[in-house]
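Something for you to look into today, if you have time. Just paste the record in under my message, thanks.
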Amino acid sequence: METAALVAPVTALEFLHDTFLLTGEGPILTVYSLKPHPKASASLSLLQHYRIHGVKPRSHAIDPAGTNRLGSTTEAKFYDLAVFGGKAVRLVRLHVNLQDGDHLRFEISSPLMELQDWALDVCWLSGDKHSPLCVALAHNSALLLDVNTGTPLAQRSCLEGCLLYSSLLLVHESWANAVLVGGTVFNQLVIWKPGGGENYSECKALVERRLRGHSGVIFNISYLQENGWLASASDDRSVRVWGVGALGGPGGPCGDLNPTCLRVLYGHQARVFSVRLSSGKVFSAGEDGACLVWDCAGGGKVIRTMKGHRAGGVRALAVSEGKGDEERWVATGGADGGVRLWRIKEREERNDKLDEAVTEKLTDLKFPEHSMPKVVCVVGEEGGNPSWSQSNVVVCTDQGMVYQYSNGQWVTVWKGTPDFQSYCVMETVSISVKDSTSKMNVCAVGNLSGSVQVFSLSHPESGILLKGGSGKVHSLIWQEGEEGMCLLASAAEGLVYRWCIEVNQNENNSLAFSVNPLPPFVLPPCAKRWLLAAVCLQSRSHEVLWVCGDRRGSLLLFQEAGKVVQKRGDDAQADKGILTGTKSEEELHQEKLQPLSCLFGVHGKQGVTSVFEYQGLLYSTGRDGCVRVFRVQPTRPEKLEQSRKNDCEKTLENKEQLELEVLRVQRACKGMEWLERVLILEPETSEQEVRDECETLSETQHSFKGGDVQADNKGREARFVIAGFYAVHFVVWDPVRQERLLTVPCGGGHRSWCLWPSHKRVWSGYGALVFIKHRAVLASQPPGKEQSWEGGTEGTGGWSLREGVHGKGIGCVCRLGRIEGSSSVLQTTVNMTEKKEVQRDQGFWEVVVTGGEDTCLTVMAVHPKTGNIKVLSVITDHISSVRTVAALTHTEGESVNLSKCLSALLFSAGGRAQMQCYRLLIGWDRQRLVPSCQVIQVASHRLDEQWEWRRNRHKTVKMDPETRLFSVSEVKRQFALLWESFHHQRCVLSVATCSLEDGKGNRYKLLFSAATDGKIAVWNLTGDSTSSDSSSSAPTPPSPCLEVPAHQSGINSLAVWVEKHGQADSSCLVTVASGGDDGQLKVSLIRVQYPDDGKTGGGRGFSQIAEPNFCPPTPGSDQLQLHLNTHSHIPLAHAAPLTAIKLLSPGLVVSTSSDQRVCLWKVCSAGISHRKTLCSHVADAAGLSVWEGQMIDMKEVDVKEHRTDNQTGVETEDKTTEREVDVCLCEETDDKAEAGESVETMSETGDQICKTSDENGGETTDKTESGHAVKTEGSVNTQTGEKDCCERRRKSERTGWVLVCGQGLQLLRVRIHI
């Protein structure tokens, strides 16, 4: 086995001169190049089964000649690094090519040095020419280690021999000057000298200083030499800064005699794991997922909060060495496996401190005090796509006056008549002038009497007055229609008046409005009957459709009147001239349009806030905290007849028989209930990576690729972010990464606001919010200041160097299939000199779904060749932890661009008896060059309110039926209960199914269920699974066909497969592998006798307890008969309860446990034999998924002692654990296909043992009951036997994949030779 991909908590971070960032994830050390932009450059697995907890570089980089020749640019320099974690230390050298900074390479400098105690910190002794290492150990001792031989030179313990949770070594030049600061289990800091005294190796050292004050254990320590500050992070949620003076300098001083506590910093909501000191600043990170920047030199306040990780907290923190007012890098590593990077400016931090975070960077635009602002909008300068510095703010007041903020001043644009006072609504838009390339900013203002004034902001005198009924104008909406810009005015009695408005320029350069009235919409009767959102779109037959959202929370579909036949036979046509007075008001009322389809109250009772169309799909938001992705499609046949009966009173005929269909519901974060709009997220490669990879492409090549991408992604769900209100903040939320991209303290949602840029509906990584608060107009960014992508990321989640997955434990995993990327389009847009870049993005991706304790389902794609992981979608519908997932997948074939598509029916279940069903459509996104995922919600089910009410009323504990059988209908979108049973009377922990087929073609289905009593029940589902009639009020509960006592306690996992036999025998053997809490692996062989007459029904009522011996079937029986044939077990397969068992290939089983071991077992009729074990890097392993890969020709494959991936720079070595546990399976000539694999093992040095012969040179075999010859593990063979075995394994091999999930995930590659 070898690791192909790993996501684990990031436990170590270290900067190298603001140029490189080192990260430790499990045993893998990765280096990121920070210039010109952050990206991964190389990685190497170092510590075998230990986690990396720290990286300490030498103080200077030295060139190979041994001198610092700064003038030479051809020589490569290197960094010597000491990597430690667990009970291991290793030295590695990072080579940097000065000509090409992107070319980085790791070289191992020493063997793995394993210690007798845990290493908490290491430090180089720079004064010694041999440069030994000083190592701080967990039991309050220090060790001097020879890096060349790995032997200890000296070791000394402290007199207070307690356990340390953290340690810090401060060494000047020699061992005698070393000072150790330890955080004890007794919540104290102790300072002592490991190298002091003459006979330091014989006696224990005394404690020189002791710091008390924490009420919890101390997790991390940091020291700032220039100020003499010592900072400690504790379990008590606090950070303490101590004034200790000089530590570890020349002579080994231990600081002041009476050290004092300078600051006690409380701001974290959970334990604080890491702390770093800089000049006047303290950086801390903890379990709450926040990195706080404290102004320690000032008042000890938090001046900045940086959040970017999912649940689980921040496990590692690093701050670069900035000088003076230079910028600093801040990196955080989370329990979700993600790495975040921020850029912090010292000057900006000081400004934040002076402002004391009262306004939190808000800018007051100084609106005049004589009037009260009511509505605010943002418009750009006329004539193009404006930037924020060129945008203007427009405000309408309670006096009916419109002001414009430009160049730092407020200017009165328009003053309304008295009927526009006390109440008004306003909307602005940019309209292209007819027969011209220029654009005009147009404003519309409505009042209580139904009047709407439309005018240009630059020429307000050329306005026009429209009439929208006689009542209140509730809202105004500008929307691009078929013939131009349309204005919608929602008035009284549910009428939505519409006008198509054009701007013309006369011969004397004056402006004139051309208005074309359109038939109004009629909203369904309800209490809150006005419109809030609308979008115009084209259907497949080129009929104009409108999708609207009202205040009642309903989504409505309208069809344009000018394209359809009027049912009333009215020949009146809409007036095509300019509207004057109320000339066409009566005519418009007669032509009012009724909705074709209505999703009544789909967004609750608080209303729909926005409707948006992008690439064929519709997105709506509401105050129910949900984003709904839906589409317009033909009406289903079962609804067509009912629709015709109900639509007899409609004014227009629904010629296309269209309706609205909701595909999925996406919730924002918890507490974010007021959603305002959806913003499409631009590809991550849109800024820097595109400039690097495509800088030589021409404009025509870009446009050609963009057109193909838009056509290819038509109808697929786009990556989007959600804008809305979270308490008193305006937030832009990323639902996939579960992070905030923008946060503005505005006071809440009950106010007028405008987000820039709003005309694109695209989130580019930055934005500005303008809003009204306390009679003032405020902006999150000063007007006139240019924004950029880089500037936007600094204030949000920073740069994502590595994407996180689940912050908490992953409990289940399911593989959907393989998706292949496209190369044809890239070849047409990239010239021949850039073929290397094209090949980098090719290959296949494995698509998997994981569920965990964070109540989320994550759809992700794993690239086995490079180890890259991309999160495709995050589903947040579960209200409790997700316990299990399963899927039915099929490949829909290949498209024109050679990329396969997957369609999967996904089922998930978890706490509160909740089940969810989704349809997942996996395709290839040619814009981001990763797979894309479309999620369609099919059905959901959980315990209803009636069951909860009955249980609480009777005050008795009612046991939930632990075994239920459901059928799912994608048409009806519901779960239907077929039957339920109380047979186990225990908690059911696992289920499995298998399908059987006899010689006559009859099919049977069996269900295996295992409970906490250690018994396995077998159910015959042949008759039940084919019946979909759930109308019966009380279905008859079945009885199990067989019950097998397998374990002493709960059974956590089952693996079932069928061994086929000859057609002459009317029976088959079913193998059941089970693992439980007792640590036992058991394999039961069950013989299934088919009915003589071939009937597939029945199966209920026949039940028996398992017997160890086979009983002959009853002649003439018409039911399946099951008998336990044989069973075998491994008493202590794992050192902890088995959590998952899967079948990799016939006769080859993979198991995992919370002991972090992944075991491979050979299962045959002779019993169970252990083949190999890998120590996984995933803690608390709970989920397992296995599958077989493609056949690979091995004729040209050579075994090398050192392997390097040239594309990614990921290196592994033969002598590490990953190479030691490599498993090869060879086909046996005398075995059948069902159990025809044997396992080659590896020696402790990593060499393959291909020898399976006995002392006489013959093969050692065991005869089984069925006459098969099974090879056993033998000793050493002759050179001839080894050569023959190696030649055989070079012919062909099949790759197996094992995905382990727990506190992270790890993908393992298993080589199966056949």
